[in-house]
Each structure stands twice: as C-alpha cells, then as structure tokens.
Amino acid sequence: MIITTELLVIGGYLAYEGVVWGIGQWKHWKLGKKTKEFRVKPELTEDDHILIEKCREIMKSNFPQGIEDRLKVMTPTERADLFQKLILELNSVYGVNITNIAFLHTDEIGSGTYGYYLRETHSIRFNFDLLSLDDPMILREMVDTIFHEMRHALQYKAVSDSSCNYGTDEQRYLWALNFLNYIPGYVDFAYYQQQILEADARQIAELSMKDF
Amino acid sequence: MINRNSTKILVNFASLRKSLRQAYRYSETEVLHTVWRLMNALDEIKISFANWFNDDVTPHLECEGISWEELINKRGLNPYNAFLFMDTMKKDPAQGMIMLKGQMHPSLRLDIDELRPDLRELIIRKGAQTTSKRELKTDAEGNIDLK
Predict the structure, then answer these.
(1) Do the chains contact at A160 and B114, CB–CB below 8 Å?
(2) What percent of chain B has pLDDT over 70?
(3) Which of A84, A151, A191, B89 would be B96's cystine partner, CB 3.0–4.6 Å?
(4) How far apart are CA A157 and CA A176, in angstroms?
(5) A-B C-beta contacts closer than 8 Å
(6) What does the alpha-carbon distance between residue A1 and residue A7 come to, in Å, rounded to a whole number?
(7) Within its chain, how far is the Cα of A121 from the centroid?
(8) pLDDT score recorded for residue B13
C-alpha cells in the first residue's frame, strides 16, 4: 500500500513536471516566433529616403554651422522656442500635426528621459532641465529626440489612419505587429531597443542629423 | 536554449508571476515575456537568477566592466530587467554597450481596435493576434460569439 502511494506521488510529480515543461516549450515557441518577426533591422523605403532628405534640409536651414554652434549661445527658453519651431516645420515633412508640445522638468518627465511622444494626447514632451544644459552631447541627443519622436507619431498615423499612404504594406504590417506587442523598456531594455518601432525611429533620426 | 535550468525557472512560474505583478505591476504578457527570456538566457544568467530569486544571493555578473548591480543602481533597471540586459550584453558585448546609452519612454502599446481596418484584418488573418476583447460578444443563451 505504501509503495503504491509513493509511486502515485512520484508519478503525479513527474506528470506535473512534464506538463509544465510542455507548456513552457509551447509558449517559448509562440513568443519567440512573434517577437522575432518585429525584431528586425528596418529597411529604408523610398518614402523614407525622401523624408530624410527633407529633414536634412530643415537641419541645414536651422543649424548651418552645426547643432552645438547654434544652441550653445541660446538661453533655455530660446532653445525651447526653436524646438517648437522645428516641430511645426517638420509636421509637413512627417505628415503629422503635432501642436501640443510641452517642456517639463526632470521630476515630472522622469530622470534620464529626454522626451517622448504621447499618442493619447498626440503631443511631444521634452525634458527642459536637460535642454538647459550646455553639454554638447546632451544637446545633440535632445535634437535627436525631435526626429525620433516625430517618427513615432508617423508610425502611429500609418497604422491607425486609413488615409495615410506612407511607406510600404510590409513596413506598416511590421509596425502594427510591434505596436500590438510592444516591449516596454522597463520590462526588457535590450529587446525594447531592438524592436522595429524603436530601431526605425533611431535610424531616421541618425540619418537626418548626420554630420550636423 | 531550453534545458534543466530553464525548467527550474518554469516551475517557479507562480512565484515569479506574483513577484512581477505585485512588485513591478507587470501585465500578464510582460510576465510571460520575462519568463520566456529567462528560460532562453545563458546558463550563467539562469543559474545566477535562480540563486538570486530562491536564496537572495547577489549575482556577480559582469560584462565590459558593467555589473548587474550597476545596471540597477545607475541605469535604473529593475532586477529582472537587469538579468535580461546582462544576458544580451554577454551574447553581444559591443551591441550591449551601444544599447546602454539608449533612453526609455512610455509604452507605445496599442489595442487591435486602434489599427486601421485593413491592417487589423491582415493581422487577424495571419494569426498574429487574437480578436480584441470588444469582439467577444455573447448571444441570448450566453454563448460566446467570436468574430
């Protein structure tokens, strides 16, 4: 009798381990398959090349001698005004209409956060305290943030607005898939940066600002 | 790679889930993602994680001069996120160093209902996403009618 009970317990435990392992294998396969699809290097479309060229024209007219050269002689408020002007100019390039632009202090926006796009209010927020610093690398990152966040606004428009014809079907599909399965930075900082929505926004910003 | 160390993580799923949901307010999807990533991490990471989670042993993980603790204290990652990032760094140190400079912003997650109709249909047709909650209607007899 005792032997039978022990065997039952061991058998039950092994069966439980088997089921748990099996579920893990299945979930691993499904999650891996899904995440792999949108963790790809973004390819530039024809529309992207045109957009980058127009961004570079705006960069040239606003920063003819480079980013640091223009911003270092400005007060923080003047820099904020320039950022607003840039976004209003870039609206026609990106095909979005961002008019709600806010500058917040670090304790409101978050330490280490340069800025972000908020789709709920169709707005872009910037870290005013970082914008107030004279560190050239930080100022450069702040300008980069403009192009990066505007790109998120465009990505959102492309997947939510039927009248938007930007990009290719493949590009919009991958963006949509990623939006539905977005990996937040606070969960997985590495995969957050590798997902196409972020990799694409970074790429556009880098190419728009290259050599400025 | 899924191996015995992965199974050890999986059998702690209930405790992991509780910790992630309560302490860090992760959604169910985020819990699954974290567990899946841990199960596929390098053995060194899995063993360190198991020791930390079960016995509160501080991991001595380091890559390119960056330690697990520095990822938490200086970069602001939570401990679980730090394990995942350390795993990525060890697999590709050069990329890891570049990613370390990146910044975070709020989640851009969308619900399927927010997609334009043609994309929504494509996603559903490809089986990449299930139908949204709003589409789960019940008939007069209480049977769920899936669209």
Answers:
(1) yes
(2) 84
(3) B89
(4) 11
(5) 144
(6) 10
(7) 17
(8) 87
What residues have CB less than 8 Å from A139, skipping those under 6 apart? Answer: A67, A68, A71, A72, A79, A131, A133
pLDDT for A5-26, tens place per residue? 877 777 777 777 777 666 655 6
Q: Which of B72, B73, B118, B119 has the highest number of chain A CBs within 10 A, making it the mutation to test binding with A?
A: B119
Instruction: Please tell me the least confidently modeled range out of A91-100, B103-112, B123-132.
Output: B123-132
Residue B86 token pair: 């350390």
Token pair 């024809």 in the structure block, residue: A46
Q: What count of Cα atoms within 13 Å lies in the side-chain half-sphere of residue A28?
A: 20
Within 8 A by CB and 6+ apart from B59, the residues are B48, B49, B51, B52, B68, B83
pLDDT above 80 for A31: no
CB–CB of B109/A182 below 8 Å? yes
For residue B125, give how far its alpha carbon lies from the nearest alpha carbon of chain A (Å): 12
Residue A209, number of CB atoms within 10 A of its CB: 20
Residue among B10, B24, B129 minimizing CB distance to A24: B10
The residue ranges of every structural domain in chain A are 1-38, 43-209
**Rounded Cα gap, residues B12 and A20, in angstroms:** 10
Q: Judge whether A171 and A112 are in contact, CB under 8 Å.
A: no
- pLDDT the model gives residue B143: 47
- Greater confidence (A99 vs B146) lies with A99
pLDDT score of B144 more than 60:
no
| Residue among A108, A116, A171, A192 at smallest CA distance from A148 | A116
pLDDT at A29: 58
Q: Please name the residue that has the structure tokens 């996403």.
A: B129
* E-strand stretches of chain A: 100-104, 115-118, 123-127
Q: Which amino acid is residue A173, in one-letter code?
A: Y
Enumerate the residues of chain A whose CB falls inside 8 A of the CB of residue B117: 162
ipTM of this predicted structure = 0.83
pLDDT computed for residue A102 by the predictor: 97
- The rounded distance, in Å, linking the Cα atoms of B26 and A181 is 14
